[in-house]
């Protein structure tokens, strides 16, 4: 049995690992000639780490995961602590720690784990066809490949998604722009073992520790879609958006390198079904593109892969295994997308009274409420 995997990102590589565990041959095709991930880092919460362990890649998380032992919210302008707490109770409850990691390093190490020489780069999907017994992918260079089934992990702009659904899906602008990158850890910005967020006026600044003494940072600003952007003005732009904010935020802005800072207009896709058409299945962002507001985009792709493997362990029939995968994932990923969208609206001030009420709640938060929500999301995954 042979699977065609479209995409060598987190979703595609984890799908290949899951299918390999079931003795299924996988051939992986990636559109770009060289991997250049969008976004500097990624929050892999405990459910995602469990999936990496299950897939045999837990050592990658051990190598790349930062020491994120605490969590804090600070008032953006004054810098005053609103709430600060240990994540140890969460880790004890769910059975695994969260691991913020460099996205580039994660993808590179997943590909190296599989074997870089076994991934076909520069193969951009153009069309999909299938019969009762196989699936054929046609690439923009005119080449084709045929396998018994296809797992399409070709991202938020998925070509395969249109084939599965029979129509094109429009992405929805979430209303804010995110700047992100990496800086050396500086405790004048935040403690080295803590996910620290500064919030005010519907804006957010965040730093979290990853490996090699680095902070992953991001800035969120509600803005209209399509504003001009220029890397050379990044510091000037952020200084303007956060001119009255606390000194740690100013220190962070001073520390960033414009050439390696990403600017992303955040989108998601309205949840849809099915995720499967015959012998073709969508996985990761192709099937459930979400905003990053609850840190579950990458985790959901890893969950997809684990469930995919479980379904093939239970079923010899490709069609039945993929149908079970669809049924097991469609409600879970819809929930994650909508949960992230709801959190986005609160965080970014789309309903000012609600956002202000959230700020007030943070000032009396002991951590129990936040960890309860995190735990519910984590334990809702396929590995508990």
Automatic annotation (TrEMBL):
Residue intervals of the FAD-binding domain: 2-337
The protein's required cofactors: FAD
A Pfam entry, by short name: FAD_binding_3
Catalytic reaction list: urate + NADH + O2 + H(+) = 5-hydroxyisourate + NAD(+) + H2O
Transmembrane segments: none
Record EC number: 1.14.13.113
Superkingdom, taxonomy of origin: Bacteria
Gene3D superfamilies named among the record's database cross-references: FAD/NAD(P)-binding domain
Pathway assigned to this chain's UniProt record: Purine metabolism; urate degradation
Keywords: FAD, Flavoprotein, Monooxygenase, NAD, Oxidoreductase, Purine metabolism
Top enzyme class: oxidoreductase
Family to which the UniProt record says this protein belongs: Belongs to the FAD-dependent urate hydroxylase family.
Name of the protein this chain belongs to: FAD-dependent urate hydroxylase
The species this protein was found in: Marinomonas ostreistagni
């Amino acid at each position: 049995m042979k699977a065609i995997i479209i995409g060598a990102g987190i979703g595609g590589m984890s799908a290949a690992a899951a299918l390999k565990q079931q003795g299924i041959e996988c051939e992986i095709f990636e559109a770009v000639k060289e991997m250049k991930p969008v976004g500097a880092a990624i929050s892999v919460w405990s459910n995602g780490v469990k999936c990496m362990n299950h897939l045999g890649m837990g050592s990658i998380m051990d190598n790349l995961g930062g020491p994120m032992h605490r969590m804090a919210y600070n008032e953006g302008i004054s810098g005053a602590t609103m709430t600060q707490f240990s994540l140890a109770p969460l880790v004890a409850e769910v059975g695994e720690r969260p691991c913020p990691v460099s996205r580039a390093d994660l993808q590179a190490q997943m590909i190296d784990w599989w074997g870089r020489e076994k991934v076909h780069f520069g193969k951009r999907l153009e069309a999909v066809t299938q019969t009762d017994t196989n699936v054929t992918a046609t690439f923009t260079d005119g080449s084709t490949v045929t396998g018994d089934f296809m797992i399409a992990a070709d991202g938020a702009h998925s070509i395969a998604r249109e084939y599965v659904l029979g129509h094109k899906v429009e992405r929805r602008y979430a209303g804010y722009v995110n700047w992100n990158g990496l800086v050396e850890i500086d405790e004048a910005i935040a403690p080295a073992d803590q996910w620290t967020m500064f919030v005010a006026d519907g804006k957010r600044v965040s730093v979290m520790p990853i490996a090699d003494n680095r902070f992953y940072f991001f800035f969120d600003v509600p803005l209209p879609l399509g504003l001009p952007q220029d890397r050379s003005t990044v510091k000037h732009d952020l200084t303007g958006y956060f001119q009255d904010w606390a000194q740690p935020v100013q220190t962070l802005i001073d520390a960033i390198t414009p050439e390696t800072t990403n600017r992303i207009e955040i989108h998601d896709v309205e949840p849809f079904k099915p995720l499967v058409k015959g012998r073709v299945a969508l996985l990761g962002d192709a099937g459930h593109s979400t905003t990053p507001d609850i840190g579950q985009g990458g985790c959901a792709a890893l969950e997809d892969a684990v469930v995919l493997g479980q379904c093939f362990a239970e079923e010899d029939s490709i069609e039945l295994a993929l149908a079970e995968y669809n049924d097991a994932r469609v409600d879970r990923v819809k929930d994650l997308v909508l949960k992230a969208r709801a959190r986005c609206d609160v965080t970014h001030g789309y309903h000012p009274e609600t956002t202000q009420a959230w700020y007030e709640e943070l000032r009396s938060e002991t951590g129990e409420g936040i960890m309860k929500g995190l735990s519910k999301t984590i334990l809702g995954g396929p590995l508990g």
